[in-house]
Design a protein that fits this description.
18% of the residues are buried. The model has no long low-confidence stretch (mean pLDDT 86). By secondary structure, the chain is mostly helical. The protein has 7 helices and 2 strands, in the order H-H-H-E-E-H-H-H-H. It folds into 2 domains: 5-67, Arc Repressor Mutant, subunit A, CATH 1.10.10; 74-141, no CATH class. Helix 1 packs across helix 2 and helix 1 crosses helix 3. Strands 1-2 form a two-stranded antiparallel sheet.
Length: 159
């Protein structure tokens, strides 16, 4: 599973607009400059997010974009569902019921289901405001032992 630039840049743009939520409409050129993302690409993302009522647009010299609702009302799962179409770690979990011919005997399916549930729960319980405030995951991640990275290779007998 890999989040595309569409999903990553949408989250960056929305985080920027959330940080400036009280200022009203924000010009995309300002967001583009702060986030180091092309204005043309942001225009495409803004059009997509506007169709789903995530953003409001205003034309004119004082125009720009702003969040349609306060940042705490947007779940990250909602945003990534729009930009990515889903975030399943493996293709066989994208359909309900599972259509994979191996699903009844697949030894790895429970692993993928568990991972999918954890990712989904995390994103469903994390808001745009949590992300901007830097509080996302603090409480949720305390419930599980944090990942400390891959194990170091075993020392060879020659060492």
């Amino acid at each position: 599973m890999k989040i595309s630039s569409k999903g990553r840049y949408s989250l960056r743009m929305l985080a920027d607009l959330a940080e400036h939520y009280d200022e009203g409409y924000v010009a995309l050129r300002d967001v583009a400059e702060r986030q180091e993302i092309s204005k043309k690409y942001l225009e495409q993302l803004a059009a997509l997010l506007s169709r789903f009522d995530i953003l409001r647009a205003s034309r004119g010299s004082q125009g720009g974009y702003m969040l349609a609702k306060p940042p705490e009302q947007y779940k990250l799962s909602q945003i990534l569902q729009i930009t990515e179409g889903g975030i399943c770690p493996v293709a066989c979990l994208e359909d309900e019921p599972n259509r994979c011919a191996r699903s009844k005997r697949c030894k790895t399916l429970p692993l993928w289901k568990g991972l999918n549930a954890m990712i989904g729960t995390f994103l469903e319980n994390t808001t745009l405001k949590d992300m901007v405030d830097g509080t996302m995951g603090e409480i949720r991640l305390k419930l599980i032992k944090p990942f400390e990275g891959p194990p170091e290779p075993a020392a060879s007998a020659e060492d």
